[in-house]
Design a protein that fits this description.
Structural class: alpha+beta
Number of helices: 18
Mean pLDDT: 85
Largest sheet: 5 strands, mixed
Strand order of the largest sheet: 1-2-8-5-3
Strand content: 5-15%
Oligomer: single chain
Radius of gyration: 24 Å
Low-confidence stretches: 6-15, 475-479
Order of helices and strands: HHHEEHEHHHEHHHHHHHHHEEEEHHEEEE
Shape: globular
Helix content: 40-55%
Length: about 475
């Protein structure tokens, strides 16, 4: 009897505040012309429904069902926040160009990565974003091409050459982690890229989770991983700071040194801990998205022989005008126009990032509806990417669709407007260098033709995309 009384008391303790909060919320927002829809159960809302859709690869259908029911603007609650869901090119333009909206992230991500470009606001965000744009601007990326080339060659030799099969996603994750770590951390990147790859996976999976540190949950595993990663990068940052103070190293070829030098010049006032948080965020944001892009390019090329032949010819033409031992250059990457169209089509069909959350800094209006201050606004990229009114036969993999200009704000793999992802050029070069060496040296077939994928939260093949591998037998080719 005492047990049932205790359970009843616990339920009442949860339900009474939730009910009172729901009543207060309805009264408070009664003067607003909110979009159609419902906030649902307090805190939970439609979160579990959306997460199930992500993990069953039905997220696009989830959004389209809401559009059919409520229209392109609707109200719901996700991850503990009242949220307005938007759809269409006009919505994309509204989100990426409205000064009343700021980029925001889930509570889990803010806890996992700390004070970074993913979570800062106001002047601090402008400082960090400006520094990131400077570090990743095209003339800086030009300096990184040979380093990417070196990382890719080493990776291919260790993980692809001489193998009958490869599981693509975890293998490519190691490659992209190695590349971004060498750029962010410099010569001391080895402990991170060699020992913490699994921890970055745990951290990435925890981004879309409730921030409750219960043992064995995704969030708990993510926090443990975050602590290990932060400790390792902090040790590197302390050494780099000491070297700069002693004058023994004044290079800005890695992100941590670059940020420390900018701070000494008064460009920003971030602490060393803040710089570490931003280094973590840059690694998290860069390596997983590019790994997904390369993985799905390999998947599509396995079944598109004509497209693969065109990519191969383009890459062979570039290689035939170089000595085998020469690294790729910026000019070489600029010639990979068709290969980049294949990448763009891959990003259209399988966008690594499903959408973006923004937070209103004031009451704003969209299409006659009120969106209260502090609410989240969200748009899913797949809604426009797979719209037959914008893309003819959207389910067909067709890189040639990018041979002509597209309507504005319908294709958003890197965001848009003044809030374009600062790492888009870096991702392009990294992907092109990797694909150059893979398509020139190998041919592959999918081991499981029926393998599906889910969002976890990035697109993740169920089996990691295992492929049978064979060499193209190019005697003149040297890794």
């Amino acid at each position: 009897m005492a047990y049932y009384s205790m359970v009843l008391g616990a339920l009442l303790a949860l339900l009474v505040p939730a009910t009172l909060h729901l009543i207060y919320r309805r009264r408070y927002y009664s003067s607003y012309n909110l979009p159609p829809g419902s906030l649902g159960v307090p805190i939970i809302g439609r979160t579990f429904s959306l997460l199930r859709a992500f993990r069953s690869n039905t997220d696009d259908q989830w959004f389209r069902d809401r559009i059919r029911k409520y229209g392109p603007v609707s109200t719901t609650s996700l991850l503990g926040s009242p949220t307005v869901l938007l759809a269409g090119p006009a919505a994309n333009r509204f989100i990426f160009s409205n000064d009343g909206l700021i980029l925001t992230q889930t509570s889990a991500l803010r806890t996992l990565v700390g004070r970074s470009v993913l979570t800062l606001t106001g002047d601090e965000l402008k400082q960090v974003r400006g520094a990131l744009q400077g570090f990743l601007r095209p003339d800086m990326v030009r300096r990184y091409v040979s380093r990417m080339d070196e990382e890719v060659r080493r990776h291919v030799e260790l993980n692809w050459v001489g193998r009958d099969s490869v599981t693509v996603l975890p293998t490519v994750r190691r490659l992209t982690l190695g590349i971004i770590c060498s750029i962010v951390l410099g010569q001391e990147a080895a402990p991170v890229k060699e020992g913490l790859c699994a921890d970055f996976v745990y951290l990435g999976k925890a981004i879309l989770s409730f921030p409750l540190r219960i043992p064995f949950t995704r969030f708990s595993k993510g926090m443990n991983a975050s602590s290990k990663i932060r400790k390792t990068i902090t040790n590197i940052a302390h050494k780099r700071e000491e070297s700069l103070q002693e004058g023994s190293d004044t290079s800005d070829n890695d992100f941590i040194s670059y940020m420390l030098i900018l701070r000494s010049q008064g460009v920003h006032s971030l602490t060393l801990e803040d710089i570490v948080d931003n280094a973590m965020s840059l690694i998290v944001g860069a390596h997983e998205t590019t790994a997904v892009l390369i993985t799905f390019m390999i998947r599509y090329l396995a079944n598109e022989q004509e497209i693969l032949d065109k990519v191969t010819k383009e890459q062979d033409d570039i290689a035939n005008n170089k000595k085998p031992e020469d690294a790729l250059t910026w000019d070489d990457v600029a010639k990979m126009k068709y290969t980049w169209k294949v990448a763009m089509e891959t990003l259209r069909v399988v966008p690594p990032v499903f959408g973006s959350f923004r937070t209103t800094t004031k009451d704003i209006e969209y299409q006659g509806y009120n969106i209260p201050k502090g609410w989240k606004v969200f748009a899913a990229q797949s809604v426009t990417h797979m719209d037959s009114h914008l893309f003819h036969e959207p389910c067909k993999f067709d890189p040639s669709r990018f041979e002509k200009s597209l309507p504005p704000y319908c294709y958003m793999p890197f965001g848009g407007g003044p809030r374009m992802c600062p790492g888009n050029e870096f991702a392009r070069v990294e992907t092109m260098v990797a694909m150059h060496y893979l398509v020139r040296q190998f041919r592959w077939n999918m081991i499981c033709e029926q393998e599906t994928y889910k969002r976890d939260p990035k697109p993740t093949p169920d089996l990691g995309l295992p492929i049978k591998l064979k060499s193209r037998l190019l005697p003149q080719y040297i890794i």
